[in-house]
Amino acid sequence: MIFNILNQMKPLTVQVVLLALLLNLAACSASQKDRAIPLRIAVAANVQFAMEEIEQLFEKESGIGVESIAGSSGKLTAQIMEGAPFDLFLSADMKYADSLFSKKMAVHAPLVYAYGSLVAWTFKDNIALNQLKELLLDESSVKKIAIANPKNAPYGVQTIHFFNSLNILEAVSAKLIYGESIAQTNQYINSSAVDIGFTAKSIVLSPEMAGKGTWVSVDPELYQPIAQGVVITAHGKQEQAEAAKRFLEFIFSTPAQEVFKKYGYEVPDSQPVLPY
Questions:
Q1: 20 pLDDT more than 80
Q2: Which of 84, 86, 177, 182 could pair with 42 as two cysteines, CB 3.0-4.6 Å apart?
Q3: Which residues touch 2 (CB under 8 Å, ≥6 apart)?
Q4: In the prediction, which pLDDT does 263 show?
Q5: In the chain, what percentage of residues exceed pLDDT 70?
Q6: What would the pLDDT profile of 65-106 be if each residue is shown by its tens digit?
Q7: CA separation (Å) from 95 to 74, 116, 206, 249, 264?
Q8: Residue 54's domain is classified under what CATH number?
Q9: φ, ψ at 177 (rounded to 5°)
Q10: Apex 74 CA angle, 227 and 160, nearest 5
Q11: Residue 51 to residue 44: CA distance in whole angstroms
Q12: How many structural domains does the chain have?
């Protein structure tokens, strides 16, 4: 029938109609393609459990799929700099996200999406955490202490800062066992391969770990605030601009911020000015 209609039209009109049809088909194809390609998000290991819930909320609201890969912030940053096709990066601090921005691998300065907290955690029944400094110095009770590698993981950096604040770094340095990320550090702790370890509060509050072992919050006066930053990468701006922007906006929405609170994070007092 459409061909009969076209035969009755003037040549110029036919060309216009055909062009409109082709553009419509192209738009539909592009739309289907965009929906088929999920956002790929690099996520600091401490955020992985909260991220699982945020992904579900975002996918339900937007219809956009999300694929997240967790790891240490340092290693994820290196992968992005080497061309890994991540669309956004949720770092465990501001430094790594800012390094991407300074090298034009991210399209805006990092925005603080949450503030992390440090905890001491043990699976040993004979260890009490009420006198943490004395415990860490006790040679009979604590022989191995797990921390995230400060070369790659911001929570490891702040654990070292905590030891320095107590003036015990030199005394405990021989006991330190380094995990390449918070995830590996947690494995050392919950397998009792170490006597005690330091990790993110978000981990001990996760459904997978809640109620397991014994933990205590580290005095926040004894380490620097762990401001965690998010950026849209240059790849994300180029390949998934609208979807990446929607996810960035969602991170600061009330539902997402409530998830962060649930996992022990502090959240920003006010909504930041979002880029472009």
A1: no
A2: 86
A3: none
A4: 96
A5: 87
A6: 999 999 989 999 999 999 999 999 999 999 999 999 999 999
A7: 10, 14, 26, 21, 22
A8: 3.40.190.10
A9: -115, 125
A10: 65
A11: 10
A12: 3
Same domain, 149 and 182: yes
Q: Is residue 74, in this structure, part of any structural domain at all?
A: yes
Work out the pLDDT band at 9, boundaries 50, 70, 90: low
The pLDDT tens digits of the residues spanning 45-59 come to 999 999 999 999 999
Task: Tell which residue, 244, 245, 233, 237, has the closest CA to residue 83.
Answer: 233
Task: For residue 130, give its domain range.
Answer: 116-222
Query: Does one domain contain both 80 and 42?
Result: yes
Is residue 126 in a domain? yes
Residues 111 and 233 in one domain: yes
- What lies within 8 Å, CB to CB, of 92 at 6+ separation is 44, 45, 46, 47, 72, 73, 116, 153, 154, 155, 182, 226, 228
Residue 18 has pLDDT above 60, yes or no: no
pLDDT band per the 50, 70, 90 thresholds, residue 137: very high
Residues 39 and 28 in one domain: no
Same domain, 231 and 150: no
How long, in residues, is the chain? Answer: 276
- Specify if 96 maps to a domain: yes
pLDDT(2) > 80: no
Whether residues 198 and 239 share a domain: the answer is no
* DSSP reduced 3-state for 207: coil
Distance CA 40, CA 215 (A): 33
From residue 100, alpha-carbon distances to 4, 76, 77, 193 in Å are 58, 11, 7, 35
For residues 19 and 140, state if they share a domain.
no
pTM, entire model:
0.81
In the prediction, which pLDDT does 6 show? Answer: 45
For residue 175, pLDDT over 90 is answered with yes
